[in-house]
Amino acid sequence: MTFLEVLYFIVPSAIFYAAPLILVAIGGVFSERSGVVNIGLEGLMVIGAFTGILFNLFYADTFGGATPWLALVAAMVAALLLSLLHAVASISFRADQVVSGVAINLLAIALSLYLVKKIFGKGQTDFITERFARYSVPVLSDIPFIGDLFFKSIYNTSFFAIAVAILAWFVIYKTPFGLRLRAVGEHPMAADTMGINVTRMRYIAVMISGALAGIGGAIYAQTISNDFGHATINGQGFMALAAMIFGKWHPLGAMGAALFFGLAQSLSIAGPSIPYIKEIPSVFLLILPYVLTILALAGFIGKANAPKANGKPYIKGER
Amino acid sequence: MSNRATNILVPLVSVILGLLVGAVIMLVSGYNPLTGYTALWNGIFGDLYTIGETLRQITPYLLAGLAVAFAFRSGLFNIGVEGQLIVGWFAAAYVGVAVELPKIIHLPLAILAAAAAGALWGFVPGLLKAKFRVHEVIVTIMMNYIALHVTNALIKTVSDGGDRTERIFTSASLRSEFFQNLTEFSRLHYGILIALMMVGVMWLILEKTTLGYELKAVGFNQNASEYAGMNVNKNIILAMVISGAFAGLAGAMEALGTFEYVSSKGGFTGIGFDGIAVALLGMNTPLGVIFGATLFGSLKYGALNMPNEAGIPLEIVEIVIAVIIFFVASGYIIRLLLLRAANKKKEAK
After folding, report:
1. Which of A71, A136, B138, B177 has its CA 20 to 30 A from that of A187?
2. Residue A293 sits at the chain B interface (C-beta within 8 Å)
């Protein structure tokens, strides 16, 4: 393979792997910016993937080509409902947010596998028939180099994920809602004094994170795995969490980190067929995202600072 | 109601609520909860063999619970028990197959290797927390995945491209003929004694040593400990190292007792995460960990009988465990409700 061929192969596949990560990481940004740690992203992704596949299998005949998109909506709703559980526990019941997140992760995988076994009588679902189609953007894909790199046989979902990231940046940094969200996560008491309803803001933020994680999970399931089993979502949620931190709790940073992790993932899978890369044992590419996140947190790659009130329940009237 | 009473009531109420939620889910999805829970009961206490296997399952839960609880007492959340357990598992199995030595040297060596590997895996987040104030939760999560991929790669190297190591030499094995004869040839092994001993060790460290006093002080209030002249950073690192060593020992139980080999894994064992549940339920005390581990170990092993006997997917028990964690974590609301109930009783009098 020439260098260009490698590039044409690796870049689209990196974007392909990154799309679900971007969405889930953005979900994490919303939740943590409001001050609620969301370790449960993994579980929310699981529920999204499960619901997406289930909807796709059941309604493929009814909706035809639109099924995958409608499945995203179903996945969004399901994950949003599950995220409410996390919200109630960590905001209203003042539970330890990390513990509640762990419970969400356990619950999601257990519940969806329980239902898979109940419905299909085996450990994983059938394969879906209606999938997201790859397509080439007209005109843009004819641009030399850039067209081949970014616009040829690409998934719509990738554009969707990038659009959501940009939208999230706009919402968090350019709207009153975003200002309130950040205020609640940095100094809830000050925000409360200014008349912002801290509890409501945090509920909304956690629900957004649930919705986005659900969509991310369903995209992963419907583009990469095409069925649902116990190992369908196996750490992608935590990788998204890592992307969020590596991106310093900033939507565009998280997107960049997710794209980078997508690259690492696609390299670890496609590596053996690429010169130079195949010399590197795949384990280094597999652990790269996690190692980088630790280094970023330790301040070796710029300092990553969490929102000040992240992880602390807000108790009115407490100094 | 006294504080102590609510402290014990919250876990109890949570367990009952968890089992109730499980029953409702079974009912809604068309199974008979009574048949389900009977199958669960039989899966735990059915005969001597199942009792032996249940005890065998409790063993790593004891150590994983100790690991989480120990870190909690020092104000640290070690969510990386899973990764520390995996590296401990590998280290013990590697020592078990790499050399053949007299049992009196080989077995302790393999156990120590597991503890050391786990301790090393705990040292990294401890060091980063102490030196750079990096939150240990995120680092330990990342370390879990690093452990998973690295051990898988190492297993491949050690076994010449295969996905599991050879069986360990009997000189490194924890298997016990005595226990096997007692329990109709279950895989119950001497590890349970080690685990129980470690419960004592944790109690000893926390309650009877200066180190334990300092660790608890750091857990309560870092600033106060600092002003009292304690070395907070050293204590943070030590807490993570000891916690990691406990987790590594849990891995040794699997490597030297239950399986006698290590195979590459597609995902986590789950024992480490359940350790969080064990510690929470046990209120992070050594004695509490015994109760927590007994409950979750039994549930986990008993669940295996549910598909056979009642046709119910065993994941129902995972759901129950998740719900229990959820309720224990939301202890505040249960406390509030208990308090209200108690006050009402008072008023009625």
Report:
1. B138
2. yes
Cα–Cα dist A137/A151, whole Å: 6
Write out pLDDT tens, residues B45-78: 999 999 999 999 999 999 999 999 999 999 899 9
A166 contact B CB<8A: no
- A278 within domain boundaries: yes
Please list every residue in chain B whose beta carbon sits closer than 8 Å to the beta carbon of residue A39.
Answer: 79, 137, 141
Question: How many CB atoms are located within 10 Å of the residue A133 CB?
Answer: 10
| ipTM associated with this complex | 0.87
Domains in chain B: how many in total?
2
Residue B36 placed within a domain: no
Same domain, B321 and B264: no
Minimal CA separation from A150 to chain B, in Å: 30
Centre a 10 Å sphere on the Cβ of residue B24 and count the other Cβ atoms it contains. Answer: 11
CA distance B54 to chain A (A): 21
- Candidates B124, B133, B141, B296, partner chain A, best to mutate (most A CBs within 10 A): B141
Domain of B220? 54-308
Question: Rounded to an integer, what distance in angstroms lies between the CA atom of residue B280 and that of residue B319?
Answer: 17
- In a mutational test of the B interface, the residue from A83, A84, A99, A280 whose CB has the highest number of chain B CBs within 10 Å is A99
pLDDT one-digit tens code per residue, A188-237 = 999 999 999 999 999 999 999 999 999 999 999 999 888 999 888 888 89
Contacts (Cβ under 8 Å, ≥6 apart) of B31 = B310, B311, B312
Angle at CA of residue A143, ends A138 and A147, nearest 5°:
75
Q: What's the DSSP call for residue A27? A: H
A319 is a domain residue: no
Q: For the domain that residue A194 is a member of, what is the CATH number?
A: 1.10.3470
